Every structure is written in structure tokens, then in C-alpha cells.
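Same chain as my last thread, 202 residues:
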Amino acid sequence: MLLYLLDLIGVAVFAVSGVLVAARSGMDLLGGLALAALTAIGGGTLRDVLLNRHPIFWIRDARYLWVILIAALLTMGYIAFFPPPVNSLLIADGLGLSLFAISGAQIAEADKHSPLIVILMGAMTGTAGGMLRDVMSARVPMIFQQDLYATAAIGGIAVYLILQKAGLPRTVAVSAGVLVILALRVAAVVFGWHLPRVHAMH
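reply #2:
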């Protein structure tokens, strides 16, 4: 149930971020709905395909699509009358990243994959939808920008796995993993944290 709730909340939050990007890009209603859906289910779809999990989660359970539709329409209704809060896209994207990264990791973990695969699948679940969103709206994907993004997801998943291994309750490990990802994303944006650049010798 915890995994399912994380997934639904992550879908809703990423759908919101898709609508916000669509609005900034001047897309119409259909474009906004399509971008919301792509953002919300893109990462999980890729994860399910690679892990050979069929039917894919949103085909098996149409409630995901209803959550996307409701979240997208509510967001469109709100921004039609009120300006989005400052940094709303970064907040929505950070929440979606943290929730999806941990839920994706749990799905790979439930399939008895190694910790490395768990980390990769979790990070992919959290980042791929946002990357597809940014590419389709002609933006530089956040994953390729300098501040911590995929690294934040990897760090949070690692904390989740370590706490699980240490014997802490799953809810504690999940909460800690989500908070670590959020904290790293906020710190990266506020303080400009980023990984060292690759330098070629001349």
C-alpha cells in the first residue's frame, strides 16, 4: 500500500510539472495533457519494459491515468486564474523525483534484483519522465544541467537501501530516502551544488 501511494502521489506531482512546462512553452490543452502524461508515466514505463514487467503499470491499473487527468486539469484550472507560485516547477519536479526514485527502487527490489540494479531502476524511474518532458518542450533536460539531479536520486536510494539493510522499518527507510533526495535537490538549487566537470588535458 505504501508503494502504491508513493506511485500515485508521484504520478500526480509529475503531471503537475508537465502542465507547468506546457504552459511556459505555450502549448494547447491537448499538448498540456500529453506532456503531463509523458512526464508522469515515462520513467515507470521504461522501467517496466526493461524489467520485463507486463502489463505495464498504467495499463494494468487505469487509476494512474485518472490521477494524471485530474491533476493536470486542476493545475490548468488554477494557472488560468492565478500565477503559479515561484519555483513551483522545481518543487513539483523535486517531489516527483524523490517519490518515483524510491518507488521505482522498491519495485526492482521486490523483483529480487541486485542493489546496483535497484539503484539504476530507481534513478531511471525518477528522471526519465522529466527528461522526456524537457526534450519534447525543447528545454535542456534537468538531468544534463549542472546541479544535482540524478545524483540526488542515487544518493537517496542508497540511503534507503542502507537503512533497510540495517534493519530499520521500511517506512523509516522510505521516508529517509525521500527526504535525502529532496534535501539534495533543494541544496543544489539554493547553493549551486554540482558534480565536478569533466576536464580534458590540453
